[in-house]
TrEMBL record:
Keywords: Antibiotic resistance, Cell membrane, Membrane, Transmembrane, Transmembrane helix, Transport. Residues 36-270 form the ABC transmembrane type-2 domain. Pfam families: ABC2_membrane (PF01061). InterPro entries: ABC2_TM, ABC2_TM_bact-type, ABC_2_transport, Nod_factor_ABC_transporter. The keyword Membrane applies. It comes from the Bacteria. This is Transport permease protein. Its main location: membrane. It comes from Streptomyces plumbiresistens.
Length: 272
């Protein structure tokens, strides 16, 4: 009789997928059990949306358009920036979560287990991107409820806008993971990730770059949020995109590569 065949050993790729899926479920369970951090970070763009539309909307629209006050026009202008700001706010929670894992000893436990080591970071990244998508959908729903409309965008343009938001979330999630890894505690991680919330305020999210003081315009123009915001406006509202589309993709690619190598090098370094 022929000897029974030995069961096939799982491949390296299948092990990586299995372990990454396990880590993803772990991080999603943490987010579900402790939603307060995500909700607190999500409230920032929603409150800014309501504040700028209902308190400053008429004045801001008159200043931008050079004509009469038109709150609906300012809603259309400000929503793309706030969608990207939502991503910056959400990934702050990722930095805090990674820092908690590093300081509470669970990472040391994972290092002793026979698991695919990068899966720990992959679980954080994929979970954060999913949270970013859900947060963007929620803020977008609030924007639609108060009057935002994009009637001229085609299905392809909507798909491109969604793809840009996902790429942006991926890029900044890897940066946030690196910030969490270098932080000694959760409070420091939150502080280190604060620029991800502040940068949109220094971009074209709320007012055009050419309306800013001349000395400040380079700060607003040469940063990742402004080209991404202008690209999103072009896709959803039909405004001119120009070179901003390529700049936005270049920023996403550069930040993803930088964040990935920074995070993995810090994670794989021997603990002190």
């Amino acid at each position: 009789m022929n000897a029974p065949l030995a069961p096939a050993r799982p491949t390296r790729i299948s092990l990586a997928v299995r372990d990454s899926s396990t880590m993803l479920r772990r991080n999603l369970l943490h987010a579900r059990r402790y939603p307060s951090l995500t909700l607190n970070l999500l409230l920032t763009p929603i409150m800014l949306l309501l504040l700028f539309v209902y308190i400053f909307g008429d004045a801001m629209s008159a200043g931008i358009g050079g004509g009469g006050a038109d709150r609906s026009a300012y809603i259309a202008y400000v929503v793309p920036g706030l969608l990207l700001m939502t991503i910056g706010s959400t990934v702050v929670g990722t930095a805090v979560s990674v820092s908690n894992d590093m300081t509470e000893g669970i990472i040391a436990r994972f290092r002793t287990m026979a698991i695919h080591r990068p899966s720990v970071l992959v679980g954080h990244v994929v979970g954060s991107v999913l949270q970013c998508v859900m947060s963007v959908v929620l803020v977008g729903a609030v924007a639609v409820a108060i009057g935002f409309r994009s009637t001229d965008a085609t299905a392809l343009e909507w798909l491109a806008a969604f793809g840009l938001l996902v790429l942006f979330a991926l890029a900044f999630t890897w940066i946030a993971v690196g910030m969490g890894l270098i932080s000694p505690n959760a409070e420091a991680a939150s502080n280190n990730a604060l620029p991800l919330i502040l940068l949109p305020l220094l971009s074209s999210a709320f007012t055009p770059v050419d309306s800013m003081p001349g000395w400040f315009q380079p700060v607003a123009e040469y940063q990742p949020f402004t080209p991404a915001i202008e690209t999103l406006r072009g896709l959803l509202l039909g405004s001119e995109i120009g070179h901003n589309g390529w700049l936005a993709l270049a920023w996403c690619l550069a930040l993803t590569v930088l964040g990935y190598f920074w995070s993995t090098s810090k994670f794989n370094a021997d603990p002190k």
